[in-house]
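Quick one: structure for this chain?
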Amino acid sequence: MDAQGDNLLKRLVDQERTLADKVEAAQKEAADLVAEAKEKAEAVLTDARERAERVAHEQREAGDREAEAERTEILSTAEKDVQAIRARADRRRADATRTVVERVLP
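Got it. Here's what it folds into:
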């Protein structure tokens, strides 16, 4: 029986070592998976930041283009208004001159 007990004890020790090795391997695998997940998450965050910066830059440029187009349109409209006012003033200047001449030199 003593040999049988020793044999049983040896098998239990072997099983414990095997389980300890399996636990150690599982812990190492888990640590590797966590490290890989962190690397992937950092890569995703970096990519997202770069895309966000690119979109923000594109939006700023679009806003600048839109503002420039609006400014150009406003200036064009103002120049047309100035030309119309000058044309009216030129037309009225002749009438005003005629009226002054008629009143001053009757």
